[in-house]
Amino acid sequence: MNTKWRKCIELMLSGELNQKQIAGKLKVSEQTIINWKKDERFQELKFKMEREVLKNMTSKAFRTLNELLDSDSDTVRFYAVRDILDRSGHKAVDISEVTAKSEVNVVNNPMTELSAEELVAFIAKADDEDEDK
């Protein structure tokens, strides 16, 4: 039974076949697979096998994420950085939260005279000018 369970789970994890096709490959009924999926031992084995597949993909995922940090697209770089920071426990905040919570005490800085909306517009304009270059 354990051998068929393993093969069933491998086929499920491949995502290439539906349940009926898996049953055909294993020469069991679709109802048998439905019953297996209800069995706690099958669920535990499936969980362990899923974790192993994910574990094997981790290094590739990290390499890909690292490559995205060097993307030409600001948006791709932003989401890569945000994902890394989120996963490392740093909470992302909106610029409105930052401007609302921050107190800037800089002498003779014209930026301190801008409202939050004007500051956001200024940053957006600067980004647009960077893209035009």
State the main characteristics.
single chain; 133 residues; mainly alpha; 73% helix; elongated
What does this protein look like?
It contains 7 helices and no strands. The chain has 133 residues and is mainly alpha-helical. 73% of the residues lie in helices and 0% in strands. It has a domain at 93-133.
- Put simply, the count of helices is 7
Provide the β-strand percentage band. Answer: under 5%
Mean pLDDT: 80
The portion of residues assigned to helices is over 70%
Topology as a string of helices (H) and strands (E): HHHHHHH
**CA-based shape:** elongated
SSE inventory with pairings:
Elements: H1 2-14, H2 19-26, H3 30-38, H4 40-68, H5 74-87, H6 95-101, H7 116-132
Describe the structure concisely for a colleague.
The protein is mostly helical and 133 residues long. 73% of the residues lie in helices and 0% in strands.
